[in-house]
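Mods, move this if it's the wrong board.
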Amino acid sequence: MVGLAWSSFVLLGAVVGPARAAIAAWSTENGPQIVLQNETTGHLRYSACNTYDEARYSYTDPNVLSLTYKPKNGTPLAGSGWWNEITTIASVFYITESNRIANAIFHCNMTTGFFLPQGNWIVSDDVPSIHNSSGLAVLNLGAEAGYRVYYHDEDGAVNELAYYNNLWRYRGPISKDIGSPPALGAAFSNAENITVVAARDAETIGVTRWNKDETWFHTSMPRPLEGGYTTKEVDRQNITVNSTAPYNFTLPAWDGMARSLGASINADYTRHIWYIGHDSNLHLVTNMNWTWGIRENQTEEFWPKADKPNADLAVTHLIDSSVVRIYYFVKGKLAEVRYQDDEWKPYSVVEAPDPIATTAPTPDGAGEDSGLSTGAKVGIGIGVSLGAISIGAIIAVLVLLHRKKKEKALAEQEHQPPSDPYPADGSTTLEAGTPYQAYGASAQGWTPDDKPSQLPTEPLSHQLDSNPRSELDCTPKPIYELPGNERLHELVADGPKQQGQPQQPGHGGERAEQEKSPGKP
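Not the wrong board. Structure tokens:
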């Protein structure tokens, strides 16, 4: 009986076990969408696709993406989606067991909340190499500009794949600088203003920016590069951090080992970089007045501690409304950290109240015979039934033990003074009672007037000149990222251009031969 009960728990764990750390998230007009990898089955699971303004994720429902190419365990995930006035569409990117980048398209059944597969393709057959620990980031630039996918090559440099005019094209590295995979993130305000961020080393994050003159410019922070910036033509041996340049902050709990970096841009075109540090806390770096600086952490009511150091996270944002949602695991559950209506909301657990009881699309290996005989299937049915009885008995015992433990704890608490839930122990969590900061409030690296504190005698090589400007000023005029470089046009603030979506693979247009043959190994 003990053996039977244990095997039942193993079967149960395969269904309800927490998803693997890899997380992808994006927002549509209907609300956020999340995709995760289950660490036991390797399947990609997703939140219900027919919700509005909320993510509903269940650990027991059958929401599993149906794929032709199997994801490798530990694959990075990236995705984008949109509403076409009829249904929600998802475009998911991952890395296969053969270490190739795959793309899958899904349409939502708005009644059941299930994604229906529309096609699965390998999109990386023309790339020279993909790092075994590569990250992934994707941007949907609209119907004309198409997709941009970013990943690490075997040397750790960040490379770009582009999809436009119905073809995937390898566009090479955006910088030849060293990297520390897999942490990688990207955001854009329009197709001529893209920012890609990647872990560089134990002290710095690399920031690479696509500008209106169609050139990638690369720098690092908090320490700048020698010369301030490089382009993708500069060889790696000629790219070094300026170890003597002054800088006005350090990255808290950063050791270059973060699993993820998130990027977001708000309505004022202010760029933000998110990560979970080795202290398991969420951290935020923001570019204001063309200078990077650290924002203060919120209390655990708003920014809870992640389950693991350097944990994976996913960030989704809406530029027009400045809404930001951040997803990572807290106490074994997927949590949502949200900034909306100009304030932080108490974090919530993303969980569907009840499993959706209906038939879902078949996952990886659709239509294959399980190979089990009738007798074997009957045996499994009996075993699961007996296991369910055993599980019920064990759960009853656990509930009783938990109740006794809770009663004892309450009794002891009556004889002890209350403890401060946010102690001043040098951690990045604020003291109890400290008002939480707004999304955009000043902190380390800035004085209240939004200017860098303790400015060095000479300007930082990764900031602008000292002329007073505000990144929040969105009048149409040239803005420059680096001093003395008029080519580095940041943005003519004509607003985000996100209308329309790229034509999808398999829905018209000519494509490379390997993209027409999902079954090709």
